Amino acid sequence: MDSSCLQRIKSQLVDPEGVLRNWSSGIDICSWNGLTCSEDLTHVVGLNLSGSGLSGIISPEFSCLVSLQILDLSSNYLTGPIPPELGKLQNLKELYLYSNFLSGKISAELGLLKKLQVLRVGNNMLTGEITPHLGNLTDLRVLGLAFSLLNGSIPVEIGNLKSLKILNLQQNSFSGLIPGEISSCLELQVFSAAGNMLEGEIPASIGKLESLEILHLANNTLSGSIPIELGSLSNLKYLNLLGNGLNGKIPVELNQLSMLETLDLSNNKLSGKINILNSRLRNLESLVLSDNFLTGGIPSDLCVSNSNLQKVFLSLNNLSGTFPSELLNCSSLQQLDLSNNGFYGQLPSGLDNLRNLTDLVLNNNSFSGKLPSEIGNMSSLKGLYLFHNSLTGRIPVEIGKLQRLTVLYLYENQLSGSIPRELTNCSSLMEIDLFGNHFTGSIPATIGKLKHLVFLQLRQNDLSGPIPPCLGYCKKLQKLALADNRLSGSLPPTFRFLTELSVVTLYNNSFEGPLPESLFLLKNLSIINFSHNRFSGSIFPLSGSSTLIVLDLTNNSFSGGIPTRLAESKNLTRLRLGHNHLTGTIPSEFGQLIELNFLDLSFNNLTGEVIQELSNCNQLEHLLLNDNRLTGTVPSWLGRFQGLGELDLSSNDFHGTVPAELGSCSKLLKLSLHSNNLSGWIPPEIGNLTCLNVLDLQRNNLTGPIPSTVQQCKKLYELRLSENFLTGMIPSELGKLTELQVILDLSRNQLSGEIPSSLGKLMKLERLNLSFNQLQGEVPPSLGRLTSLQMLNLSNNLLQGQVPSTFSGFPLSSFVGNKDLCGAPLVSCSESVGSERKWLSDNEVAAIIVAIVFTSTVICLVLIYMMLRIWFDWRKVSVSSSDSGGLESNREEMQWFYGEDNEKKNGDYWRVNSLTSVQPQEK
Amino acid sequence: MALWALFLLLLLQPSFLLKSSMANLEGDALFALRRALKDPANVLQSWDPTLVNPCTWFHVTCDGDNRVTRLDLGNANLSGKLVPELGRLEHLQYLELYRNKLRGPIPKEIGALKSLLSLGLYHNNLSGPIPPSLSRLTNLKFLRLNGNSLTGRIPRDLTTLPNLKIIDVSNNDLCGSIPTTGSFYKFNERSFENNPRLKGPELMGSVNYEIGC
């Protein structure tokens, strides 16, 4: 025996655990760790160093152990390739190298190991294809190549391995077809190729493998239908084809698999009815057909008494029908999942026949009726998932008997009544979700008995009353959602015991009073939403956690200052304190909140300036500081907030100019600076805000012209510049803002010149206010085309000439204060013409009057004729026209609102067209 | 057993998602739209379904009760289809999705938007008919569907819309004749132009108005 050869092998290994310590020349080789000698002690026949913590490489020197029959180096940390020299070990029968970090290819030389019976090299980082030379290993019983990075197709030579019993190829990247030649491996008991990229059909010839017990082809891209020949695999215990693209029906031949224990065909495209019959599959324990396109009901003989069926998973199909009472025969059933199907009707009272059931998963169906009280007898039940059905009635008090129940999901049903106190007897409960029902009454005062409760969601019910103080004894509670109820009272001081609490949402209730100071002890809070309640006092107790991500306290009555300690929560992304009575200044420490995305401090009584430190919060997308008493200037560094979409600083006491730098906030959608003391010119850079939807600068002291660059804000739908001291002409470029819709308000400025006729292009504009300026000249006739206009105010300008005829429906107040304007609804232009043009002779005047009277008479006659026609037609129209009269009487009355009644009488030229076109047809 | 446990966990996963997003139907409806749209300009990035309501999402406007009143996504380079879930926004007044690359039909569920004042879907690639259900939009004033590939006839039911002020269905592929009754008596021919198969105003009582359809 060659001890020096073994020493060279040892020298290539790193041995931190010292298992090779006794491999030294002074000791008999046959007593070296891991070595087995032949009976005559002359040869090393076995070497087992499995799980010895070895690293290093497999030395080519192994080839010197020519008598070696078994080599086991599995479960170590070996790296490098499998040396081709191992091919020289002509006596080797078993080679175990699995669970190492070996890389490289499986060398062709391994095909020389003619006596090899077991080759297990999986769970390494081997790459490349399976060498076809492995087909020479005709004595091979076990071939394990799983969990590596092998690719290519499965070689057809696999069919030469007539002795093969176990073939494990799972979790590699094999592609191509499953070779039909595999049917030659008649001894095969286990074939697993799951988790590869195998494609094409499952070869029908697999049906010849009569010894097969496990067929595992899950998670490939196999297609076609399931071959009926699989029904011949009379020894098959485990058939898993999940996660492929198999289609067609489930072959009825599968019912011949009398030994089958597990059948998983889930996540395929199988259709048709379920025809798996437990009466023939007597050994079936797990039936998984989820996520297919199966239709119809559940066959009546799916379940037989004395069956072994433990798991039935049929979710995500198109199954329908009522709850299959036949299933109640399966008393062995432990898990039943019929979720996401079209089942309907009542839950059977005999549910308690399923006395071994641990999980009942019926969510996302249309089950209706009451929860049977017998459910209390299902003493093994751990998970009850009935959400998203149409269940009605109360939760039966018998539910309190379920001592093992851990998850109760009844959300999104129509359940009502109070939450039974007995529910708190279910001492194992960890999760309760009753969201979206109609529960009334109060939260059970004994809720504190649920010591294991982690998740409690009662959101969107009609619960009232206070939070029971004993809730504080649910010390494991992490998520508490009581929002959207009618709960009231103040938060009990026992909340301080909820030290695991991370998410607490109480919004839209009527909670009141100050927060218990001890809430400061809750250090794990990350999401708090108390908005829309009547909480008062300081918000300081909520600043104890430094892991806050969301704090939303909008619409309460909190007072006092903003705690600087909030700045400790470095991950805070949403801070909403709007609509409270907060005072003091914005803490300069907020500059540390660099993750802040949403800062809403609006509608408070904050004072001071927008501090320079906030310029660090450059992730801000919403900055709402409006309706406070903030002073100072609008900071120019806001221009560095590249993600800013909404900036509202309105209704404060800001002075100075509108900073030109705001033009750099290229994503700004809404810019509202109104009701401040801003002065100076509107910067032309405003035109760079090409995404802007809303620009509101009204009620400031702005001077200078309206910059024509505003035309580039093509997406503006609301533009308000009123109540400033703007001068100059209305830029005709405003006519390019064709998406203007809500309002164009330039009123109460000192604008002069004519109204640009281009405003007639604002076809979507619903309100136009140019009043209280010094606009002169005529109202451009193009404005008459603004057919969307509902409110118009041109009053108190220096306008003259005729009002476009289409405006005659607007009230007088839309035009008053322009002494030279005429035409409906003002005095007719003929009157003003008569008084103005004094150089006409009396005769001429008389002639004109006669002409006018004549034409008016003719027009009146025509109009009367048409009105009669319209009236005649109108009566044929459905009742809706009388309905509209009712609506009009309810509408908001604005002085310059377009009168809808007039509109109907004036816009009738289309009717004229249709009438005239009828004439020739009738002739 | 571990496999089964994992499987069960995976099965229940959607329910956990549901739990957080069912906060409000309107947010869900809008998020369904987001999922159906391609948004290369990332204008819908702020649409976080885990928020209490969609009122702080960009391009969404709410009223004081946190109900969605406006959806402004004109000119946003969006493609994809409209979703029936939009019909759940029962306080929506302005649905402005003009000048995008939207395709597919106008969901009939839009007819459930009982507060809608303005439907702006012009300049897209929408196809299929104008859903007759739009006649349920009793508050509708502005209906702009021009510049699409809409087919079929103009539903007669639309003439019963009591408040309709503007209709523009020009530049489509509509057929049949143009209604002239009800609220349609006041509309200009320009509202209907460039529909090569549209045969002109309907002729009361004399000819079937579905000619050429």
Summarize the helices and strands and which ones pair or pack.
The complex is a heterodimer of chains A (923) and B (213).
Chain A: H1 3-11, E1 13-14, E2 35-37, E3 44-48, E4 55-57, E5 70-72, E6 77-79, E7 94-96, E8 103-104, E9 118-120, E10 125-128, E11 142-144, E12 149-152, E13 166-168, E14 173-176, E15 190-192, E16 197-200, E17 214-216, E18 221-222, E19 238-240, E20 247-249, E21 262-264, E22 269-273, E23 286-288, E24 293-296, E25 311-313, E26 318-322, E27 335-337, E28 342-346, E29 359-361, E30 366-369, E31 383-385, E32 390-391, E33 407-409, E34 416-418, E35 431-433, E36 438-440, E37 455-457, E38 464-465, E39 479-481, E40 486-489, E41 503-505, E42 510-514, E43 527-529, E44 534-537, E45 550-552, E46 557-560, E47 574-576, E48 581-582, E49 598-600, E50 622-624, E51 646-648, E52 655-656, E53 670-672, E54 677-681, E55 694-696, E56 701-704, E57 718-720, E58 725-726, E59 743-745, E60 752-754, E61 767-769, E62 774-778, E63 791-793, E64 798-802, E65 820-822, H2 829-836, H3 842-876, H4 880-890, H5 900-906, H6 909-922
Parallel strand pairs in A: 3-5, 4-6, 5-7, 7-9, 8-10, 9-11, 10-12, 11-13, 12-14, 13-15, 14-16, 15-17, 16-18, 17-19, 19-21, 20-22, 21-23, 22-24, 23-25, 24-26, 25-27, 26-28, 27-29, 28-30, 29-31, 30-32, 31-33, 33-35, 34-36, 35-37, 37-39, 38-40, 39-41, 40-42, 41-43, 42-44, 43-45, 44-46, 45-47, 46-48, ...
Antiparallel strand pairs in A: 1-4, 2-3
Chain B: H1 2-21, H2 25-36, E1 37-38, E2 60-62, E3 68-72, E4 79-81, E5 94-96, E6 101-104, E7 118-120, E8 125-129, E9 142-144, E10 149-153, E11 166-168, E12 173-178, E13 197-201
Parallel strand pairs in B: 3-5, 4-6, 5-7, 6-8, 7-9, 8-10, 9-11, 10-12, 12-13
Antiparallel strand pairs in B: 1-4, 2-3
